[in-house]
Amino acid sequence: MTQTVHLPRESSTRDVPLARLLRSDAGARLFAAYWACLAVVDLTGDSFTVAGVAVVVAACSVRQRVRTGVAVAVTGWLFVTGFLGDRHGELVVHGPADVVRLALLVTAAVAAALSTRPRGAR
Q1: Each residue of 50-105: pLDDT tens digit?
Q2: pTM over 0.90
Q3: Which residues cross the membrane (predicted)?
């Protein structure tokens, strides 16, 4: 004889509106940054790639903790490093220019995170 076990219903991400999920969840921001950076790298020319990724990084870091912003910046930097230099998707550091790009993206992420920090967050 089989019995059905009914577990108490817990809130799931299906019950949360998408806008609220993107405002609060760091994982959702990283996911959005990943796909948005991929689209920017694919759709822009070399001269606008870093600027486009910087805009994505700043937008995905709004109302997040600083560490989430830094993770988003590193994600963007990996795309810029992998696709800007030789367009093959290989992560090859091309010298001090990549370090400057990383510093630019981290600065954009930290500035966006700190300027829009939720009350009580550290």
Answers
A1: 999 999 999 999 989 899 999 999 999 988 888 766 666 677 777 898 899 999 99
A2: no
A3: 32-59, 66-84, 99-116
From CA 101, how far away is CA 93, in angstroms rounded? 11
Q: Cβ contacts of residue 34 below 8 Å, gap of 6+?
A: 75
First to last CA, the chain: 54
Render 35-53 in DSSP notation, one character per residue.
HHHHHHHHHS-HHHHHHHH
SS3 state of residue 92? coil
Tokens of 107: 């600065």
**Sequence letter at residue 27:** G
